[in-house]
Amino acid sequence: MGDTPRQRIAVIGATGQVGMALSRALHRLGHEVIAVSRGRSASNRSQLDQLAALGMHLAFQEDLTNVSQVVAILAGCDVAVVALRANARLVRELEPPILEAARKADVRRFVPDEFGTHTKGLDYGVGTLFDAKKEFQEQVFRSGLEWTLIFPGGIFDYFLPNLRLVERITTFGNLHCTFPTHSLEDIGAISAKAVTDSLTANKAVQMYANVVTQAKLVTMLKRLWPDHHFEIEHVSTETIIYLKEHGDPLKISAKGGAEPDRERHGINYATYVLGRLACLDDPDTINANDLYPGYVYKKPEEALADPKFVFGETHYNC
Beta-carbon neighbour count of residue 176 at 10 Å? Predict the structure, then answer.
């Protein structure tokens, strides 16, 4: 663990994609992890078993708005991390009581549910989800707790073209907008370092390796798989702008998505129209490359060369 003392860290949403990667990385660093889940189910049973097998403490709390019960879980924790991958409604409903519980439990540092677009660097009005997150950030800043915001850029699973869950590849807006993208393992590793690092108190951390464009990624995919015809559908900038204002506010149609369509197109607008998935000009933001210069990231080429990543377990016939 180097110079970082062993800490007790609660990860709320520990069986989710980022939560799982983060919990494992914290464990590897030698920290005590409280893996918080809303309950055991068919969809998370395997993840819970894996976390328990590593020696993590499992805590179940179905109602995250019950402040007194969440206080009991967070008692004695140095850091509370929220990794629920919530939509705007859930950000507004769940995170304020979790923050209040962290304050009452004397948690030293609070890490809100970001793990995506650099919302602190956006203006209000870019998207419904971002507005909800920015409103909550203001509550965090006023709470008196230390805070750290983690902005990993794009996760490989959603920002590298693949056919695992869909019939065709979809591109959006400006194909030449740049953005960083990282594997879940790397996001977990950097986040685990950052949420326990004294240098990141009251700072945002922007991961900024693997800066790519959609055009570059599609070209890379075709080069790696020259014998496969990839059907590509493009969603125009005009469509994104329209749908971020008029898309269905309740329907969730994206592959593996958590955000309703209107919120999702707000994300597409920030990423592929404004080019603001990442932000390094915010005065409170530290580039993770500067914080951890020796860390070696997995590259997009490695993922796109893997048939299981691109096509899934059963869909590719050699």
Answer: 11
> What distances in angstroms separate CA 216 from CA 59, 178, 211, one per listed residue?
43, 10, 10
Q: Tokens 């800490």 belong to which residue?
A: 7
The phi-psi region of residue 262 (left if phi > 0; otherwise alpha if psi is between -120 and 50; otherwise beta) is alpha
Global pTM?
Answer: 0.94
Kindly indicate whether the domain formed by 8-151+184-206+280-295 is annotated with CATH number 3.40.50.1980. no
- 120 and 149 Cβ atoms separated by less than 8 Å: yes
Question: Where along the chain do its domains lie?
Answer: 8-151+184-206+280-295
Distance CA 269, CA 172 (A): 9
CA separation for the pair 221, 140 (Å, rounded): 41
In the chain, the amino acid numbered 271 is T
205 phi/psi in degrees, rounded to 5: -120, 120
What is the token pair recorded at 298?
């997995």
- For 111-145, give one letter per residue: b (16+ CB within 10 A) or e: bbbbbbbbbbbbeeebbbbbbbbbebbeebeebeb
Residue 177 to residues 118, 187, 213: CA-CA distances in angstroms? 15, 21, 6
For the chain (318 residues), the mean pLDDT of every run of 10, in chain order, is: 79 96 98 96 94 96 97 98 91 97 98 96 93 97 98 95 91 98 98 98 98 98 96 97 90 74 92 96 97 97 97 67
For residues 114 and 244, the answer to whether their CB atoms sit within 8 Å is no
